[in-house]
Amino acid sequence: xxxxDVTGIPLLPGNKGKDCLGNGRxxxxxxxxxxxxxxxxxxxxxxxxxxxxxxxxxxxxKECPRAGKSxxxxx
Length: 75
Known about the structure:
Elements: E1 3-4, E2 10-11, H1 44-48
Antiparallel strand pairs: 1-2
């Protein structure tokens, strides 16, 4: 199951937000920047406070594609 913002943007928390389509740095199919979802995102702590995915193996958020993974490099 994927995490989807209310605007329909798929979210991928962690890695300081670099991988998330909702971080305001990615382009949509029309070449326009996708608006940042970070202010309303419930998973912001994963992007800004978590260090190097150390909490992913014990994460209770089952919707997150990183949850339970010990090596997020393959995601």
